[in-house]
Amino acid sequence: MQDKALGLQENAFDVNLFRNPVDRSGMSWSAIASFGPKALYDLNLAAQDFASRQRPSPAGLAEASAHDLYLAPHCDDICFSLGAFALRRRKGVLLTLFSKSGYVARPRTVAAHGDERIAAISSLRQREDLAFASQVGLRLYFGGLDEAPLRGHAPFDTAKAEDDARRLDGAVIAAIFAAATEWPKDRRPWLFCPMAIGGHIDHMVVLKIVLRHYDALRARWRIAFYEDLHYASAWRVRAPGLARFEQLAAWLKARRSIWPIGAAADKLALAALYPSQFVELPASIKPFTPAQRIPTPAHEALWSAEQA
């Protein structure tokens, strides 16, 4: 992955800060290059982050539509990744695809076993998702798919992602189009897809399927990709996760835009709607904003190639 990072987006180096062959500390680019591919990619990413603070968001992205579609691999993914954005817009559809789950942060809080345990946890998590959707004004649909451990996979076994993406392709695409029960005539709404930062296999499956059907989906939606949180809140996870996305979707030449969270308490209140996922409810906004190498207000992030 580090070697491939050398061939990633060159647009980050268009930032004025990085045009000078000698940086502000007096270090030459040849010296920086000697640090290796990882250091170069980290610098590239820092430049993209810097640029995203200066450029306007894609035209129309601020326009909310009742037909916008938020794709969540699991209950909580949209809340953690785009909760403040969704709260501000208060319109759209939330589709949680892998809505059958066996995970809670405190296992002893669910006494059932076997299939009854899966049913109890799935019901609990779906109720949490419903509370979030109601709070931010989204219509909620469940895809009814089994999450990775219920399919016999370790959650971060990315080697299984391509096979699962092919096997689940039809079910995921059918669920996406089934959630679009009506269609506006004036403009295309937005579809928000995870970038699979963190490498969770279910996030990878959704991303790969959306990229595979990008042209067909783009005929009906404008498409943006969100940085998955909490994963993107750690630089050591975010940097390789973005490198993987840029490798998978290099042809898009997507650019980053930031969406300030505003009052941290508002997003933390949304996260608290998912108590099953915490040993203790979060008191800091840090897990819910992408890690940066430059001072940046708490925010959520979208990447898109859309110009209008």
Describe, in plain words, how this protein is organized in 3D.
There is one protein chain. The protein has 308 residues and is of the alpha/beta class. The protein has ten helices and seven strands. Strands 3-2-1-4-5-7-6 form a seven-stranded mixed sheet, with helices on both faces.
Radius of gyration: 19 Å
Percent helix, as a range, is: 25-40%
Q: How do the strands of the widest beta sheet line up side by side? A: 3-2-1-4-5-7-6
How far is the N terminus from the C terminus?
Answer: 32 Å
Helix count, DSSP H or I runs of 4 or more residues = 10
Question: Quick check: average pLDDT?
Answer: 87
Estimated share of beta-strand residues: 5-15%
Uncertain stretches of 5 or more adjacent residues: 1-27
* Class inferred from helices and paired strands: alpha/beta
Strands, total number: 7
Largest sheet: 7 strands, mixed
List keywords for this structure.
308 residues; alpha/beta; seven-stranded mixed sheet; globular; disordered N terminus
Topology:
Layout: H1 2-5, H2 29-33, H3 37-54, E1 69-72, H4 77-89, E2 93-96, H5 114-136, E3 139-142, H6 161-179, E4 190-194, H7 201-212, H8 214-218, E5 222-226, H9 235-248, E6 255-260, H10 264-271, E7 299-304
Helix pairs in contact: 4-10, 6-7
Short note summarizing the structure:
The protein is of the alpha/beta class and 308 residues long. It has helices spanning 2-5, 29-33, 37-54, 77-89, 114-136, 161-179, 201-212, 214-218, 235-248, 264-271; strands spanning 69-72, 93-96, 139-142, 190-194, 222-226, 255-260, 299-304.
